[in-house]
Amino acid sequence: MPVNPDLVGRDFAPTPPYLVGREKVREFARAVFA
Fold first, then answer.
1. How far apart are CA 2 and CA 5, in angstroms?
2. What predicted TM-score, i.e. pTM, was given to this entire model?
């Protein structure tokens, strides 16, 4: 996937942390067939 040249060098504000539990990790692993 190419990088949109309009976004190169742009700064984004930090976002609050997203707390991840074991079930979300399991869901992700199933989704990517890990």
1. 9
2. 0.47
